[in-house]
Amino acid sequence: MAKYFRFPWATTGDRADIPDETQNSGAVSYNEGYGASYSRNPATDPSARRIERQMYNQALFDITSTLQEYYQRGTPEFITSANNGGAPFNYPIYSRVLFNNRIYESLINNNNTQPTNTTNWRLVDFAGLDARYITTATAGTSFLRKSSNLSDLTNNALARTNLGGVPTQSEADARYLLESSNLSDLTNSASARNNLGLRSAATRGTGTTTGTVPLLGPLLGNISGNSATVTRNGTNANGNFRIYSDGFMMQWSNGSTITGTGGATFNFPIRFFSEPQVIPWVVNGSSPGYTSVDNVNTSTARVFANIDSGVRIIAIGF
Question: The pTM is what?
């Protein structure tokens, strides 16, 4: 820095105002400066003028004051009509000015409006804004209120575009599942079930007939809130049985030995009203084996095993 003017020239000295316009008298002015009359010899020419100390001080004071302002602020003050001989100054585009302690930039050429005109000027010092500068008037027109939750946006469609990738309500309705639809708006229910790992039982009703899912809840009696209760327990030569209040029955047999491939027929302790589900298991044998069930009716079931085994069954149904 060549020179920082801590004090503008003649800050405490004598100064006299210099007019802007050319003076007919030939006196100094900002438009003409020191004219020809100041170059004449006062000793021989009556029209000669001497340089006025106060006005010279004023000229240097104005220059150094302006330079100091640039050093300290970096942006010049807005030129008012009073500064410009009574006429608004026409700012070119991108000019920057300091107005009411805020910096504005012109958005147009020949801009002679006040910086508060948001069409022709934009505020530059956004980071410096705080409650000291935000008035009720400017807050209502220039800023979004937190309490409004974006309802004060002037162009919702443009805001979504600026955010990027935000769908409209109709686009979202077509793209996403609605909570209120409870999955009825799935485009392919079968594919959805497959993606969830659900098998064919997911589409079957409950019951005791072919093609339905058997109701096994009564096996638990009153556990977990099941309303069915045990109404009768019994036993006879064929095994044990339990009857529930809704008609459901659970029966389990005494053991039977299966030799070779002939299988064994199990008689249920009591008759079912419809064909039950039968589950056999090996209770003893020379080696681990497996069983299968065939010829099930309401009274009997035939069980086969791959080894000589002791086998029992459990049957459930109505």
Answer: 0.36
